[in-house]
Structure formats: structure tokens, C-alpha cells
Amino acid sequence: MMQRRAKTAIGAAIAAAVAVALPIALPLTDASEGLRLKAYQDPARIWTICNGRTTNVKPGDTATREQCRVWLHSELAEHMTAAAQATPRLVENPQALAAAGDFHYNAGPGWWGKSPMAAHFAAGRWAEGCKAFIGYIVLAQVPKPIAGARCTRNAKGKLYCELPGLVTRRQREARMCQTGRWQ
Q: How far apart are CA 102 and CA 97, in angstroms?
């Protein structure tokens, strides 16, 4: 019974923290992802629609602006919740949670837990965690070089390019984490 109450309390704390952090993060995520109402392939050739939605997207899919708004709101909240579950101390800092949620939404769930940001935040090192966004996960495996981007091949010959949009996004996440504003 006590364990169930503790889980309920933790869940309530995360939900409350997400409710505060979500309006901080939404403008950054919206601006970083852009809005496309027809499915397209992103630079990593992943089918995407709306504001970066990749779940169940296939060629030819379309969406309305309202669908995109609802999806972004609910999916960003889900990503924030997952980041806070993995790093519970995030509930103490809405700005860090907002940045973590944007990163989690963009990079995917597999990257948050092993990130330097998560390690710093778990230890309560907020300033170090905020700075760690800069330069983290800015490369993408691509089929061909991207004009104007720094590209390199790994030992197996796979091509990776630094995506300028990700460099900018990580800088904005760091700023949001530090100040609550991304601009």
C-alpha cells in the first residue's frame, strides 16, 4: 500500500512539473521542428509530419494544423514525462525539464538516459547539465553529403554530417535550461 502511494505521489509530482514546463518548451519545439502538413523524409530519411512527428508516418500522409497542434502538445508532454521518470530530479527545475523534454522529443528516448545532461541533472548539477546540451548529438547518419555541412565517415564507411539545425537547437536548449527562454 505504501509503495503504491509513493508511486502515485511521484506520478503526481511529474505531472505537475510537466504542466509547468510544457508551456516553456512548446515554442522552442514548434520553432525548431517547423510545421509540414504533408509527410516528408527528414535528413536521416525518417518519415515525418507536422512538428517532427515520426510515429506511424508513411509516404502520402497529410494532417491538419489542429491535428499537428494536438499531437505536438501530447507527444512533447509524453517525452517530458519519460525524461522526468528517467531523471526524477528534473521535477525540481522546470527550465531543465523543458530543455530535457525538447531534447527527448528530438533525439528520441534512447539518448536521454545516457546523456551527460541526465547525469548532471541526476546529481543536481544544474549549470553543468544545461551547458552539456551544447554540441551533444548534432550528427546524423546520412546517405549522401549535405551541402554546407561538416561530414565524416566512420571506420565502417558510414557517412555522418553535422546538421546546422541541431547545432542551433542544442544551443537553444542550453539557453532555455539556463534562462527559461530560448531566444
A: 9
